[in-house]
Design goal:
The complex is a heterodimer.
Chain A: H1 2-7, H2 9-14, H3 17-20, H4 27-53, H5 58-65, H6 68-101, H7 107-113, H8 116-119, H9 122-133, H10 140-145, H11 154-179, H12 182-190, H13 195-224, H14 227-233, H15 243-252, H16 256-288
Helix pairs in contact in A: 4-16, 6-11, 6-13, 9-11, 9-14, 11-13, 11-14, 12-13, 13-16, 15-16
Chain B: H1 2-6, H2 10-35, H3 37-43, E1 50-55, H4 59-77, E2 83-88, H5 90-98, E3 105-107, H6 111-121, H7 133-136, E4 139-148, E5 168-169, H8 177-191, H9 198-210, H10 219-227, E6 234-238, H11 239-249, E7 254-257, E8 261-265, E9 269-271, H12 273-279, H13 282-291, H14 295-303, E10 307-308, H15 311-316, E11 325-327, H16 329-333, H17 336-344, H18 349-353
The chains are: A mainly alpha, B alpha/beta.
């Protein structure tokens, strides 16, 4: 039947082979829907961002995005975000290991707790963390006596970003470790590998893509985070002022183009950063093979 | 089956497909629209309620006023009227109106924000502020200090705020309307001191902001920092917020200090002509704004800790609102447009305070 159809020139011209041969129906509808929604939800706002920025001259654009205060905020935002994502990478992987490999009472509860930072409105998280870490708070007061200030310093921003980023690493790594057959480790050990070698050579390489994916998610979330950070940061120029706040400040002055210019730069830095992480991860996994 | 199909002509096969494709597209658009539908559906409901777009701390004030107005309007016109309120940072609210929020009236923290609605979106004439009495401000307020009980740092006036070791809480003037009043009041004080000048005033506010450890983005955030987190010795605040804080958080914890000189804050109100005309609500909206100047509402205003315009009501509440010398934005700074450009625009005086090397 296929052959007959292929011989019939007119039919071939009308129905592209990729569509005619697809076993799963509904490609046209789902693909159309995907493109339309992606276009409306993602591409349209993004192109508006670039269009608005394009109303600036190159000189104005450069002045806006390289102002010393703005540059200081990039350093803070990306520096603290990278640090927070790295902490989450280790802490998150550890939590996953405990949740998947050890049975203990209340495990389901702990598992559910992990999602809390996802579900909590970020402003609420920010206010709660500030209350805890402020000089009058439960954790802040004893720390203040040791001379450590957390709330209203960059350290406070780190605390907030670790909090909101943690579930990203855990929820991406957890299913992969669950699916990992223990027989591989047992085989490695029965072939003479030590426990540490089994983890390093068998478990971690399998988890690596998921860990990196979680890392990138936690990082992207941290870079764009506003709600939770704003309450705990103190927002002092050159010290604890994050880039999203500067964008908001520009908007407050009705400087839409200035705001989108900074946003575009943030987007570009994020893009380059994520691209670099992905390349690094690909090289790493190739070397592993 | 395929024989059957291959005998069909191109035209009768492509017509249904085109229709099918159109249907698919329609289905996709509908599905996407469904996600954003609730807002659309609500806006269609009749009769049209009034929408009052206001700033943050007026929530309770307008709740009280709306109840009374709705009752009176029904009595007068025989028609029920609902009044919706929207609150947020003054600048953010103005931006929402510029971007299409259907406000019939705006009641914001500063004239500059309504000026922006007039110039950017042309929703009301540029001379809007002349249309109602008292610069279109049915109530005023001023800037005072909130200090901890007993005033341990002995803060009496603006010059106490620049003393070393005094920690001052104020929101960021770049993001908060209230903070702009704070900053300008401090500036006006410095200019009017013996030997005062613009240069002296610049030094004064620079020194003042060196004593500010945290810049929250809004007035309520700063109040939380001061009252709940225990940071700072003095909170520079709207008078109405300070009075509310003492009432709500306890007179045993805080007290109010009035400086020797402050600024007359005039939060203005305006009809948004183009929106009201389109919705057919002009009569009701205009009546609503004029209603704010009546004795009855002036009383409500005073009870909500704003200074009433009406002299009789003001006299009645004089204990709560001590007389103090106040400059106006027009006489001291030549209006909001100028003050904004000189002090708060990018690269303006406030930004220079935070330029490196000046720390």
């Amino acid at each position: 039947m296929m052959r007959a159809a292929a011989l019939d020139g007119s039919l071939v011209a009308r129905v592209p082979p990729t569509v005619a041969h697809r076993a799963l129906p509904g490609f046209g509808l789902t693909m159309g829907y995907t493109l339309l929604c992606l276009g409306l939800v993602v591409l349209l706002p993004l192109s508006a961002l670039f269009l608005k920025t394009a109303t600036l001259t190159w000189h104005q654009f450069w002045q806006t995005v390289t102002a010393p205060r703005v540059v200081a905020s990039y350093q803070l935002t990306f520096g603290v975000s990278l640090l927070a994502a790295t902490i989450n990478l280790f802490a998150g992987t550890l939590v996953v290991w405990v949740l998947v490999r050890y049975p203990f009472p209340g495990k389901r509860l702990v598992d559910a707790l992990v999602d809390l930072p996802f579900a909590l409105p970020t402003a609420v998280a920010g206010i709660a963390l500030t209350a805890l870490y402020a000089p009058t708070g439960w954790i802040g007061a004893p720390l203040a006596e040791l001379g450590i200030k957390v709330a209203f310093t960059p350290l406070g921003i780190l605390v907030a970003l670790v909090f909101i980023g943690l579930p990203f690493v855990i929820r991406t790594v957890q299913p992969v470790l669950q699916d990992l057959d223990r027989e591989y480790e047992e085989a490695a050990i029965s072939l003479g590998a030590s426990r540490w070698q089994a983890i390093r050579k068998v478990v971690l390489p399998t988890l690596a893509p998921a860990i990196f994916a979680g890392y990138v998610l936690a990082l992207s979330r941290a870079v764009g985070e506003y709600g939770s950070v704003i309450f705990i940061a103190g927002n002092m120029p050159f010290v604890s002022e994050i880039t999203p706040l500067l964008i908001l400040t520009k908007l407050e002055q009705y400087d839409y183009a200035g705001a989108t210019a900074i946003a575009v730069v943030m987007l570009l830095i994020s893009f380059v950063l994520i691209l670099a992480i992905n390349l690094l991860q690909r090289r790493q996994s190739r070397r592993g093979q | 089956m395929h024989l059957n199909r291959s005998h069909q002509t191109r035209r009768d096969r492509s017509a249904p497909r085109a229709r099918r494709n159109a249907l698919r597209l329609l289905a996709g658009i509908l599905a996407c629209m469904l996600l954003s539908a609730p807002g659309v559906a609500l806006a269609q409901a009749a009769p049209r309620p009034l929408l009052n777009v206001s700033y943050d701390p007026t929530r309770e004030l307008y709740q009280d006023i709306n109840k009374v107005f709705a009752a009176q309007w029904k009595q007068k016109s025989g028609q029920p009227i609902a009044i919706q309120q929207s609150h947020g940072g003054s600048g953010k609210q103005a931006r929402a109106v510029i971007d299409g929020l259907d406000a019939d009236v705006v009641t914001l923290a500063l004239a500059y924000d309504i000026d922006e609605i007039a110039t950017k979106a042309k929703l009301l004439p540029a001379d809007w502020q002349k249309r109602l009495p008292h610069n279109s401000s049915p109530y005023t307020s001023t800037i005072v200090f909130l200090v901890r009980k007993g005033n341990p740092k002995n803060i009496r006036d603006w010059n106490d705020l620049v003393r070393p070791g005094v920690s001052v809480i104020t929101p960021n003037p770049k993001t908060s309307g209230g903070a702009r009043w704070n900053y300008l009041a401090a500036w006006a004080y410095a200019v009017r001191q013996p030997g005062g000048s613009e240069t002296k005033a610049r030094e004064f506010v620079t020194q003042l902001f060196r004593n500010v450890p945290i810049l929250d983005s809004g007035a309520r955030g700063s109040l939380t920092t001061f009252a709940e987190r225990g940071v700072g010795d003095v909170f520079v605040s709207w008078e109405n917020e300070a009075l509310l804080a003492v009432k709500e958080l306890g007179p045993r914890k805080f007290e109010i200090v009035a400086p020797s000189l402050s600024i007359l804050a005039e939060p203005p109100v305006a009809l948004v002509d183009r929106n009201a005309d389109r919705k057919g609500t002009r009569a009701a909206a205009q009546a609503y704004l004029e209603f704010l100047y009546t004795l009855e509402v002036q009383e409500i205003i005073a009870r909500n800790h704003y200074r009433p315009i009406d002299k009789v009501v003001a006299a009645k509440y004089s204990k709560e609102f001590p007389a103090l010398e106040m400059v106006t934005i027009d006489e001291a700074f030549g209006g909001w447009g100028k003050a904004q450009a000189t002090h708060f625009a990018d690269g303006g005086v406030f930004d220079q305070i935070y330029t490196p090397g000046r720390h």
